[in-house]
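Q: My labmate handed me this sequence with no annotations at all. I'd like to see what the chain might look like in three dimensions before we decide whether it's worth expressing. Could you predict it?
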Amino acid sequence: MSEATGTGVLSRRSLLCSGAAIGALVAAAPFRAVAAEPLKVAGIYTVPVEQQWVSRIHVAAVAAQDRGDIAYTYSENTSNTDYPRVMREYAEAGYDLIVGEIFGVEAEAREVAADYPDTAFLMGSSFKEDAGLPNLAVFDNYIQDASYLSGIIAASMSEAGNIGMVGGFPIPEVNRLMNAFMAGAREINPDIAFQISFIGSWFDPPKAKETAYAMIENGADVLYAERFGVSDAAKEKGVLAIGNVIDTQADYPDTVVASALWNFGPTLDAAIAAIRDGSFVAADYGVHSFMAAGGASLAPFGTFEGKIPQAALDLVAARAAAIKDGSFVVEIDDTEPKSS
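A: Here is what I predict for the chain of 340 residues:
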């Protein structure tokens, strides 16, 4: 199989418009154990592996391969219409674990998983695990802890009290990060204003950039860069930006103050361990993205060391410690955020 499969569509997933969450019970039957040799792992992605969200899965898989835990291959730019076929090809080829994102093909992907009960599937999904599919586990980037902390930093750096937020689609995984960011910002400034817009695409930097321009024109002096293109606008207009999922400060040293990072390593490592000992079952692996599990963190402040108000740094340190010991819990709010 080639390493670039599909039609080149750059939409990571289509917006889910219908369907209810499938049962949340975890299957009791253990998955088959696999011998000690490297697991055969395939990734299936609907965008290039350089894209923020997918890049975190890819980086973790490459790291696991470098350690000798897995033998890894992948298909990128796979369209939703082609996704089930690619899943079947990897399953037929005897891969132990298939990882990817089925947000736009939930029903079809689950049908494929049902046809290959001896293959483990670990899939990004807005739905929950299904006890009737013991070989399909789900995950999402639950990095609301780090997003909350980045909101504290953002509000402390905003002189105008006006933050612009550009997202892809208003689906749960985006909404929860935006809402957590806003809650953190309000700890510093309860009256802070937010301009919120969704561009209707997972990869359209020019559109994200133009949307950010409009927010800057409307008074925003800090931007939440959920999509590529936002930090470019911030750089050009001389305002600040907060990153999401990856750290882009090296590309924007005078612009990106902080970023909420996603580390997919704990999620993938947990699945690998479960497959090896025969305990892999239908489960929600989202908890491995929490800060306490090592799945989320704030990026180093780098070029902004010494430029962030000490009161904000003290609050971030206190909240981070409380999040890790469980005494402070960042709310998971999947509702669509609104401008205010």
